[in-house]
Amino acid sequence: MDDRLRRAPIGVITVRDGTVAAANDAARELLPGEDPDGKPIEGAFPQSVADSLPAAFAGASVAEASFEEYYPTVDRWLSVSVVPDDGGATVYVDDVTERKRHEQARDRLRAERERVAMVDRLIADVLREFVDAASRAEITETIRERLGASDRYRFAWTAEHAGDGPVVEGVAGEEGETFPAVRAAIEDGDTTPEARAVDRGRVQVVESMSDASSVPEPVRVAGFADGIQSVLAVPLSYGSSVYGVVGVYAGSEDAFTDHERSSFEALGELAGLAINATRNRRLLLSDTITEVTFELGTASPLAAVSDRCGAELTLDGTVPDGDDGLHCFLTVAGAGPDAVVDAATATPNVEAGRVVRQAGGEHGRIELTLGGGSPLVEAVSQGATIRTATFEDGAGEVVVELSPDADVRRLAVALGDGEPATVRSRRDRTRSPTTAREFRDELGERLTERQATVLRTAYLADYFESPRGSTAEEVAASLGITGSTLLHHLRASQRKLLDAFYDEFDDRAE
Questions:
Q1: d(CA 207, CA 116)
Q2: Running along the chain, 510 residues long, what does each successive block of 10 average in pLDDT?
Q3: By the 8 A CB rule, do 428 and 290 touch?
Q4: Rounded CA gap, 388 and 400, in Å?
Q5: pTM (2 decimals)?
Q6: 8 A C-beta contact, residue 355 and residue 330
Q7: How many CB atoms lie within 10 A of CB 363?
């Protein structure tokens, strides 16, 4: 072998009659085993999956060839060129492992970027359609139809949360035998990923369905036959309320990346928000409303406190506290307000409390902040308007207004403790507009949401009483704002209130 070839930075192998005649040092480092001289080229060279090198020497004469292949025995990518000559051939070999791995990493990143962009576009399309959705059914249909039609997923189905388990609404895509098996499992009371998503209020992912003991066996068997490998179950929730669930089934184990899971989690929250908004819109615009009176037991923290303190608690009004909390202003009778606040703040789901006004030893007004999971918060988060509520001797009576198509049983399950809350009465009534309502609507259009919240909180906290039941600092602390911000909002809202009252409207921005 020529000295220049011996010193070449790439491997050079001369072959005569299919046998290695010589190999330079670079080639010897790339080839496995001992000295390749005198060995058949097929035996001296590592084996690849395609076996392209032996194929070049298989004919009556050596075929010119050039290829890059992965060789598992040496864990390398090799670039190989076979150049025939009069006496045989010269094989040039170069290690291109680092370059190939960079290319593979680049291709993976490009594919991941394209996949992320596609999923984001898909979810953005779904969200745009929420804007025009007039009902819960339209929202869930949009989700399953768009996801089921996507090339990324096999099928998607949605269900409503009815308290005692998911109730299937529909399916879109290639359901095969898997979806009927899922439906049968739900009807039999088996725990599916979708049922867990509803119970836990969190996205559930199964990456290898055939091996997942958390999936009912008939579903695993059907999924294996259909080529289904992964499942994503997304709760449709708002605050502490779960309205339903969507199950998305895919044909690969890596169908749901961390980014996709986060995107679907956001989709579930926005869908819950949209469902809640449609319910509130129907209640606001409907001429007919359904008035329902529920009986609550000690699962209600306010009922439990009334029993513990021997007090009667009457709800005067509420102010939302974020997505899953509620400021409740209550009149206390039969017990000291201080004792009631102490007992309440030691009760689960009561996050804070204070005395607003003390009127004698066993009478006054208090403010309690209820957290997610308490019945009153559940009622509000499901679109109900609380008209009245009283609690005494460990029992409560709550009167709510619902839109005519609201699911009363679903709300009863949310208000109950294991069993649906007792419905004492239910009636539909026509809501006739009144001058007072028109006034409130007109004012409501002029107040910002923050101004309305601040004004109502200050009113219920007896800030406008003389003497005041709450100082500006106390009201501000309740709302999590500074005293100066509170006063700014109060001045702006009071001016708008006076303008509306005197019909001397001022369009200045406050």
A1: 18
A2: 81 90 89 84 85 86 91 90 88 93 86 74 74 75 87 90 77 93 90 89 90 91 93 86 88 85 85 76 69 90 93 90 83 93 92 88 90 84 86 93 82 83 88 58 78 89 86 90 91 83 46
A3: yes
A4: 7
A5: 0.52
A6: no
A7: 17
